[in-house]
Fold this protein.
Amino acid sequence: MLEDLAAFRTQARGLVAGHEARITLAIDIVAPAQPLTAALVEFARTFPMVEVAILAQPMDATLDRLRRGAADLGLVVDVPAPGLFEGLARVRCGTIDFVVVAAPHHALARMRGPLSAADLRDHTQILL
């Protein structure tokens, strides 16, 4: 009972200080796990009584949840699409290197040296 009472007091102090009791984090499924895990560990250390709900989903669903207020914070991979983030505040928190791959028999795989954007332009790309 004493441990429960101490936990209750800690949570009550957090609420009085303006901390949320629960936050919902919507995450784009292509976001890398390692930096997110490190951030969540530090968050739990700093705010031990704040419950974190994590929703992993495609980027469009993540942005939809943010716009509807169904998530407090989102983590998405930025893509150059006009208006995609309209109405949302954004802060860059890192970079990701994407690697384009092709089957060995594909025309791009047979090209030597680094490929340019012009080399890629006439080929279909599948992004997940």
Summary: Helices lie at 2-16, 33-46, 59-68, 117-121. Residues 2-16 form the longest helix (15 residues). The mean pLDDT is 82.
